[in-house]
Amino acid sequence: MGKTLLLEKVLDYGRKQGYQTVKLDLRLAEKTILADYQSFLKSICVEVSESLELEAQLENYWRELYGLNKNCTRYWQKYLLPSLNKPLVFALDNFERLFAYEELFDNFCSLLRGWYELAKAETKVGLLWQQLRLVVVHSTEVYPKLDTNYSPFNVGVAMELPEFTQQQVAQAATQYPLERKLGEAGLQELMELVGGHPYLLQQAFSAWCTQNQSLEELLKLAPTSEGIFQTHLHQQLWNLQHHPPLETAYKKVVMAPAPVPLNTEVGFKLHSLGLVKLSGDNYFPSCKLYRQYFSTHLGATL
Q1: pLDDT given at position 302
Q2: Do 146 and 153 touch, CB atoms closer than 8 A?
Q3: Domain boundaries, the chain
Q4: Which pLDDT score is estimated for 96?
Q5: Low-confidence ranges of the chain (pLDDT < 50)
Q6: Residues ≥6 apart with Cβ < 8 Å to 132
Q7: Among 1.10.1510, 2.60.120, 1.10.10, 3.40.630, what is the CATH number of 231-301?
Q8: Are 112 and 155 contacting, i.e. CB atoms less than 8 angstroms apart?
Q9: Cβ neighbours of residue 221 under 8 Å, at least 6 residues apart?
């Protein structure tokens, strides 16, 4: 939905307002680091230190007597935050990378929630933590289970990126060197297929620029394994096939002519994957592309 682009714009705005900024892309984290929580926390401390042009000093603040979250908090509280000369925006992009590491995810979420709680106190320590602005960016995937009392996802301000409006789609099209103009009718046909989904629109505009196909041909092949969305559709199919309750529920959704009721948790997860929209308490496919593709492929697999 354009989350990384939005993050870059937020960080750029922060810098213009006089904030320091540090961004860590968790997609780049190696599996060996993610497999060991202590290595993961230490790597974050070192990366942030270097981004702030500070010498990493873990040996001066890390105590084996303390737990890992305590040590990481101590390093930030006693070294990183006092070294700032202006507030810091600390952004963690592609946070969903941690979802597959249940213990690490649980502990790290507790750490971030703890930092949020520390900043609420009107004390010397609280004022220090108020210098930190934390931004967590993640795709809406199937979340691991997490105690809400220790979750960073139910505090602060949550932003869910909406689909583009028709006007925004038309504006987005102007960003591409479209030698063949789609025209208003073409844009309308494209939106009828994929709605205002930024990524799918980007894929369509790119294909229109590079492939010698008519719009009719492009849209006809779109919901097939030969179409321009094949990689995205295969990934979504993989997500469903590896979560049987979601697969069963989504088959019901795409086969039904009208919105259908679903178990609340299942409905939430399908919505998180971007596969459904809500009509009251009932669910329907989020775009025509999904209905066409999954009604064929889920019908064949179940």
Answers
A1: 43
A2: yes
A3: 3-150, 171-215, 231-301
A4: 86
A5: 301-302
A6: 76, 81, 87, 88, 90, 115, 119
A7: 1.10.10
A8: no
A9: 227, 228
CATH class in words for 3-150: alpha beta
- Please, are residues 132 and 119 in contact by the beta-carbon 8 Å criterion? yes
Q: What was the pLDDT predicted at 205?
A: 85
The confidence score (pLDDT) of residue 146 equals 57
Cα–Cα–Cα angle for 266, 272, 274, nearest 5°? 110
**Can you read off the two tokens belonging to residue 137?**
């960016």
Rounded CA separation 118/123 (Å): 9
